[in-house]
Amino acid sequence: MGFYDFIVKGRAGDDLSLEQYKGKVALVVNTATHCGFTPQYEGLQKLYASYKEKGFEILDFPCNQFGKQAPGTNDEIHSFCTMKYATTFTQFGKIEVNGKSESPLYTWLKSQKKGMFNAKIKWNFTKFLIDRNGNVVARYGPNIKPEIIEGDVKSLL
Question: Catalytic annotation on 35?
Answer without folding.
Answer: yes
